[in-house]
Structures are given as structure tokens and as C-alpha cells.
Give the backbone structure.
Amino acid sequence: MTVGGMTGGVAGTGVPAGGVAGSGVPAGGAPAGGVDVVLPCLDEAEALPWVLERIPAGWRAVVVDNGSADGSAEIARALGASVVHETRRGFGAACHAGLEAAEAEYVCFCDCDASLDPGLLTGFVRQVADGESDLVLGRRRPQGRGVWPPHARAGNRALSQMLRRRTGLRLRDLGPMRAARRKDVLALDLTDRRSGYPLQMVVRAADAGWRVSELDVPYLPRSGKSKVTGTWRGTWHAVRDMRAVLAEGPANGVGGGVR
């Protein structure tokens, strides 16, 4: 099911509604093989309309409800999204359930709290479709004071440094917004089902020799309070999960199929 009635253009970004000129993303916004956008969701009823109206035309939104009590699943379905229910709590559990439910050649991931504009993912998919990168990540650029709490930013910086020592990748952010080919991500055989999932994807991609790149994206004030980085405790649990991922040795045989 595609998201109906959504606009594909992104104001102020230079991304047109009809696709990206000169790229593998043709008019209509979707490359051959299609694009699914996985949106992990826990009580995001307020943010969902804003997020879903920014899904590019012709792409499919896959909202993964992770036990919401505010009617998020019903709102997402009413707005035309495909809805998947994942009863096991955890950011990674929701993301992976969406990955397994996806069917398109390209898969994107984006938070569902209105802090990131999924319309910007057209540029991410363009780089993958054109063979410039195997995994494209969004480097968050805060739009205003207090958008990215100091403790969360410090944790992200420390993890980026540890990632560099572990893999050699020089990334400035480990945010949730990203795009790759679906089959390639599945081949990474990701196992973390908590906060370490996004990092494990990057680590295993690096171990498999993927080309990983970053694109700057505006980081907006989120709707509601963050379940992860809104508190020191949440940030600590996330860092703990991610440190465990960095301590893993290279997985054998991951990443098959990347050109």
C-alpha cells in the first residue's frame, strides 16, 4: 500500500516533487524497484500526520507500531501507511520488523517523531541508486537551542570516535536516518534489537567493505519527549547497548551482494 495524498517536494531543500534531476530517481520520485520507508513508532500520534505527508510521492511508508497506547497505528493506517505491529519492545526490534516487512529494492529508515524530514531521503536514495554509496546516513544539524541535548550530543561524539577506532570510518553522526538496498541490509544479519541496532548496521557494513557516506539534514524539535536521549538514563542505556556492539568481532560472511 502506498501513502496516498502525500506531497513529494521539500520546501527550502531543492528537492523537487518529481524526483531528482540527473539521478537514478526518475520523475515520480521512486527509482525502479521502489522505496519503502521504515518508521519505528511508539506513541507518535501527534507527529505522524507531519511525517507521513512528507513521504515522497510513490514511496511506501511502513509504520512499525511498537506498543503505542495513543492510537498511533490507527492514525497511520488512516493516512495510508502500511502498519506492522511489533510486540517486542526496542528500537532495533521495531526497525528490523519494518525491514522484514519491506518489499522494495531500496529501504530507508527515519524517526517518526517529526525531528527529521523524510522528504530529504530522495537524496539518500539517489546516491545508492547511482552507485555512489552503499549506505547513506543523515548527519543531524540542530535547528535551534535545546534540539539536541548536550548529554546526547556528547554520547554521539564518543561513539563516533569509538567507531573510528573499530572500523576506520570517519563519521560525525550515528543518527537514525539512512538508506540502502534492502537485500544488502538483510544480508548483514543484524541481531541487536535495542538501541544498538543503528550502530550495528554501520559496523557490519564497514566490516563488509561497504561505502558509507553522510549527508547533512536539519534536526528539528521533536514532538513529545525522546524515549532514548531525553534523559541521562536513556542516553546511558543507549551508549551501553552501542558499546556492546563495538565490542563484537567482525561477523563472518556479512554483506554479500554489495557491488
Summary: The CA atoms of residues 113 and 223 lie 5 Å apart. The helical segments are 48-52, 72-78, 91-101, 121-129, 150-167, 182-187, 197-207, 232-246. Residues 150-167 form the longest helix (18 residues). The chain has eight helices and seven strands.
